[in-house]
Amino acid sequence: MVKKIGCIVFVLILLAGCNKKPEERTIFAMDTVMSISAYTNQQVIQMAVDKIYELESYFNANSEDSILACLNRDKKINANNDVLQLIAFSKEIAQKTQGAFDPTIYPLVKEWGFISKDYKIPDEDKINTLLKYVDYNSIAIENNEISLANENTELDLGAVAKGYTSQQVVDLLREQGVTSGIISLGGNVYALGTKPDGEKWKVGIQNPDNDDYAGVIQVADKAVITSGGYQRFFRENGVTYHHILDTATGYPANSGLKSVTIVSHDGALADGLSTAVYVMGYDKAVKLWKNSDNFDMILIDDENKIYVTKNIADDFIMENGTFSIIE
Ligand code: AMP
Ligand code: MG
């Protein structure tokens, strides 16, 4: 019997020190609770909310009439700019991470029941069959046409859509002259500017074992996005199966990391990489980080050891315990 367990997303945002009141809005979109808090007016907040609903109508693979669902069904579409951008970007991240992140994972994610929430462990033959369709090279992009080479190929943008959306919302707010705010899309946080008093925003990183937090990262103008098996999983016969799949095996990733937080100016990159690094594990992640200059990481491994890359180490605060710095 499969026991269903819901998804708990945890974000602690410390707003202490603000005298002025921000405008706030909480909505349910992309299967999660989203909140916008920014020093602006309700009209601008409404524009941001409209943008979120617009992007949801493009990227939700599990809704019959979304653009992504049309692509998965018809294998060819003329895409709008957002869809083109995000799919091209997803292919790029897949290449950069040697397929640890792969948007063509959708048939497997469905088979495990992570879309329907009717969870099950697929039999091995089924996993091996579906693994054959996981290949980002089967996505072709020409001008504004996107096509999928194989009739069984289907895309899942769940690992990048919220980060991309947070970036689009922040870009919109910036265009409207907003310089301070916090966007939290189901735990995917973007800290716009600084607090009105000029201090950095403080974003809590959840302890993967409980509802407490492992530490706090202080940021300005950055996305802080965490992936972890604890965010969505089910248990069967005492074994836990979570929602981030290893594209090499078709089973939940087991790389030695419990939680991966990516800190970056680029929300879509932070989201894509948080999923990829969770699959890749510590050694490959550090190698990728050393060869890049556009993200930082907070990693928590299976022994609860915490590692923080050197560029953000001074901004990472822990009340109890220690962490190692990745140099
Ligand atoms: P995130 O919470 O951003 O790490 O995204 C997790 C979601 O991405 C899952 O619920 C799946 O829909 C999808 N997913 C799972 N494994 C992968 C993978 N290896 N590459 C890309 N997307 C994945
Ligand atoms: Mg992600």
Describe the structure concisely.
With 327 residues, this protein is an alpha+beta fold.
Summarize the structure in words.
With 327 residues, this protein is of the alpha+beta class. The protein has helices at 42-59, 67-74, 81-96, 106-111, 124-131, 161-175, 267-280, 282-290, 310-313, and strands spanning 3-5, 12-14, 23-29, 32-38, 76-78, 139-142, 145-148, 180-185, 188-193, 201-206, 213-219, 222-228, 233-236, 239-242, 257-264, 296-301, 306-309, 316-317, 324-326. The structure holds adenosine monophosphate and magnesium ion. The site of magnesium ion (MG) has 6 residues, from helix 7.
Net shape: globular
How helical, in percent, are the residues?
A: 25-40%
| Biggest β-sheet strands, sense, barrel | 9 strands, mixed
How many distinct beta strands? 19
Rg (CA only) = 19 Å
Q: How much of the polypeptide forms β-strand, as a percent range?
A: 25-35%
Mean pLDDT: 93
Sheet with most strands: strand arrangement:
3-4-8-9-12-15-16-17-19
Q: Helices and strands, in N-to-C order?
A: EEEEHHEHHHEEHEEEEEEEEHHEEHEE
> Count of DSSP helices?
9
